[in-house]
Amino acid sequence: MSEVTAKIPKPVLRGLHNATIKRNLIVAGVLCVISVVVTKYAYVEPKKQAYADFYKTYDANKHFERIKNAGLLQSVKD
């Protein structure tokens, strides 16, 4: 029985806190970079493309006339 307990190495506790903090900071940094990249390409770029597509065919004067004809503008009289 004493042979088995003698072969188990003692745990290394000196510097353990610093090592875990260093590892956690690296993991947090990598996860932050991944989340920024995913947000940019999954949310921001499609939204920018949707705005570009909308304003490619948008006519402000046509939109103004449609609102004016619907009677929604009180300041504009025919």
Which features would summarize this protein structure in a list?
single chain, 78 residues, mainly alpha, 3 helices, 74% helix
Question: Can you offer a commentary on this structure?
Answer:
It is built from 3 helices and no strands. The protein is an all-alpha fold. The protein is rod-shaped, with a radius of gyration of 32 Å.
Write the layout of secondary structure elements.
Blueprint: H1 2-7, H2 16-56, H3 60-70
- Given the structure, what is the number of helices? 3
Nearest-integer average pLDDT:
90
What is the first-to-last residue Cα distance?
102 Å
- What coarse outline follows from CA principal-axis ratios? rod-shaped
Number of strands: 0
Percentage of residues in helical conformation: over 70%
Structural class: mainly alpha
Oligomer: single chain
Characterize the main sheet.
none
User: Uncertain regions: pLDDT < 50 for 5+ in a row?
Assistant: none
User: Taking Cα atoms only, what radius of gyration do you get, to the nearest Å?
Assistant: 32 Å
Query: In percent, how much strand structure appears in the residues?
Result: under 5%
Order of helices and strands: HHH
